[in-house]
UniProtKB/TrEMBL annotation:
<dbReference type="InterPro" id="IPR013685">
    <property type="entry name" value="POTRA_FtsQ_type"/>
</dbReference>
<keyword id="KW-0812">Transmembrane</keyword>
<dbReference type="GO" id="GO:0051301">
    <property type="term" value="P:cell division"/>
</dbReference>
<keyword id="KW-1003">Cell membrane</keyword>
<keyword id="KW-0132">Cell division</keyword>
<keyword id="KW-0131">Cell cycle</keyword>
<dbReference type="GO" id="GO:0005886">
    <property type="term" value="C:plasma membrane"/>
</dbReference>
<dbReference type="Pfam" id="PF08478">
    <property type="entry name" value="POTRA_1"/>
</dbReference>
<dbReference type="InterPro" id="IPR050487">
    <property type="entry name" value="FtsQ_DivIB"/>
</dbReference>
<keyword id="KW-0472">Membrane</keyword>
<protein>
    <submittedName>
        <fullName>Cell division protein Fts-Q type</fullName>
    </submittedName>
</protein>
<dbReference type="InterPro" id="IPR034746">
    <property type="entry name" value="POTRA"/>
</dbReference>
<feature type="domain" description="POTRA">
    <location>
        <begin position="23"/>
        <end position="91"/>
    </location>
</feature>
<keyword id="KW-1133">Transmembrane helix</keyword>
Amino acid sequence: MIVLVFILMLSFCICIIVKSDLFDVKKIDVIGNKRVTKSNIMKELNVNLNENIFAYNFKDMKNKLIKNPYIENVEIKRKLPNKIIISLKEKEIFAVLKDEDNYCYIDKKGNLLEELRGSNESKKDLIVDVDYSIDDNKSIKFKNYKTKENVFKTLNYLKEEGIYRKINYVNLKKESNIEMLTRSNIKILLSNDDNLDYNISRVSKILIDLQNKNTNGGTINLNYGKLAVYSPEG
């Protein structure tokens, strides 16, 4: 009997404490976000401060946030007595697609992250000039399967060779030829054939050599079989 009374009293005390304003949320911290602002997150969640920390439905909050195309994963935790911590993992921009005056960001799976009509807000991401469109479901539609394959094949080869960040622009408008421009203003011409991976590895070595010589500008032409031709500016 004494034990039962003690349990009831303890439960009552816990209930009183939990429902007190001690556990009203005073702060919501967001970590791991770069492109998604905290204000946008709070707007998407539509939650208010000063509510009991145990009244928040974390499952619903997570489901709302995961709909944001930039967000790959969400973790939400309580930090007693009055703080909520939202940890985000954002998707990386794989490339910026360009078609005429329209731009869009895509992730590594080819999913649309953001559409930018008439402007390119990113100055540091690689731009791919290619025929594409965006359907009503906000999905990227390339001219054909070969075009899509060319985009990801080329960019993945650049990543494998460690020169992805050195390239500013890739033109894939022509199926048989590829034109690139580096951030040091060096134009690269190569054929889009079965030797593409080999030729991009050659480009990597040539760029290292030119960098060691403090050489900017000019053209690297790999359209002569095994012969690589570099022409300085002018």
